[in-house]
Amino acid sequence: MRILVAMSGGVDSSVVAALLKQQGHEVIGATLQLYDYRGPVKTGACCAGRDIMDARAVADRIGFPHYVIDAENRFRDSVIENFADAYARGETPVPCVACNQGVKFTDLLGMARDLGCEAMATGHYVRRIEGAERNELHRPVDSGRDQSWFLFATTQEQLDFLRFPLGDMPNKEAVRALATELGLEIADKPDSQDICFVTKGSYVGLVEEMRPEIKGPGEIVDEKGNVLGQHEGVARYTVGQSKRLGDIHTSVGERQVVTRIDVPKRRIIVGPRSSLDVKGQQMRIILRDMNWLISPSQDGMSCGVQLRAREGLRDAHVRPLEQNRAEVILAEPALPAPGQACVFYDGSRVLGGGFITSEGMS
């Protein structure tokens, strides 16, 4: 097959390219230049100048063509601007999802088709399994490297064209060992950070620079509006967070968590975590921008849902709504953060998902 490999310059995608070439496929490598990488770049940032050179070196070493695609403007508009806008709305964005569904699985995949490729491969840790009726997206063998939550928005058409060779690898150590075996000099290269475009400082500095209207201190209050303390900027907080609240949890007697963010008033609203622990209490959340990898019943279904990248599954009942939305009834209360993803699972299989809104939370 002729296969385009999306190469970030890291170990994973380099191994994918080398492995496919070794298997006899016609490989074409492509690396996206996502932002201006001139000047100092924080260690661990991906898609910078060093990574582009590393990807090109792998292509030269293994022997296949490699292209660099200037996607800086598209990436800024579809990922970085939306990232800042989300914080300005009091939401917590997931930029990796926006990147995958923008420049990677849309623009780059379109390029693959234009080049006559029969598939596009990436270094993501997920599995594409041929089911009885359609291709399915599953968690990888190595649960510690699972990236399925970030790929929930992959459409069925995209999934049919994509390949994920690392999904069956037992662990990252095995991938690095394979890189050494394949003669790749980047076998010991560190993994990139989660937010690749924050090349210096922190994401808070970037957001406040792009959206200065939300910069500055404000009040931390309880649900009744009583002032409990001060904060240094709303972009530093997300719903469910207990850090950066100072000694509030001790002064009021219970550990406090962020329950809401009021950006216009620059207020962080907190409450005791114990108030959520009511046995038998259910919680309703509404999702937007749904992506389904099954044909959902209008009556809904029971399944497991994951509300954050590092959380486990929760029991829920999911029902599709009009306008590409869905209703999720959690069996037990939680603190879902608006802007984050809610992904549905049946065992290891991804059924679909959407983005959490503040609408209808009860």
How does this model look, in words?
The chain has a six-stranded antiparallel barrel. The chain has 362 residues and is α/β, with parallel strands linked by helices. It has eight helices and 17 strands. 25% of the residues lie in helices and 28% in strands. Strand 2 (26-33), helix 2 and strand 3 form a beta-alpha-beta unit. The relative contact order is 0.13.
Task: Encode the helix/strand succession as letters.
Answer: EHEHEHHEEEHEHHEEHEEEEEEEE
- Counting DSSP H or I runs of 4 or more residues, the number of helices is 8
Helix content: 25-40%
Provide mean pLDDT, rounded: 92
Distance between the termini: 51 Å
State the oligomer: single chain
Instruction: Give a quick account of the main beta sheet: strands, pairing sense, barrel closure.
Output: 6 strands, antiparallel, barrel
SS class: alpha/beta
Number of strands: 17
- Model regions low in confidence, pLDDT < 50 over at least 5 residues: none
Assess the beta-strand content as a share of residues.
25-35%
Rg on CA atoms, Å? 22 Å
Give me a quick take on this structure:
The chain is an alpha/beta fold.
Secondary structure topology:
Blueprint lengths: L1 E5 L4 H12 L3 E8 L15 H14 L3 E5 L1 H17 L6 H20 L4 E3 L5 E4 L4 E4 L17 H6 E2 L8 H10 L21 H8 L4 E7 L5 E7 L14 H4 L4 E7 L4 E6 L10 E10 L8 E6 L7 E8 L3 E6 L10 E6 L2 E8 L6
Parallel strand pairs: 1-2, 1-4, 2-3, 4-7, 8-11
Antiparallel strand pairs: 5-6, 8-9, 10-11, 12-15, 12-17, 13-14, 13-16, 14-15, 16-17
